[in-house]
Amino acid sequence: MTYLVIGICIALLLAVIIISAKPIGMGIEARRNINQKGSSDYIDEDQTEAEKINNYNISDEIINLNKLKKDGILTDEEYEKAKKKLLD
Question: How wide is the angle at C-alpha 33 spanned by C-alphas 43 and 36, nearest 5°?
Fold first, then answer.
């Protein structure tokens, strides 16, 4: 009787392993594909210049310009010119 129960348990365990092997393999393959693509999904080389500008956060760029101005790297005129260029 004990051998029968152990045999059934082993059979069920093997069935679960066989049934779950394919989805696990598909998940691993999907993760590899994502890692291999990297950030290429987010950057399209055929984009127009306007689309490229819209892909980054303009407010972050203005904050960076403001920091450069505060650090004395940019003059007020250069800051205003660069900010205007970003907003246009």
Answer: 55
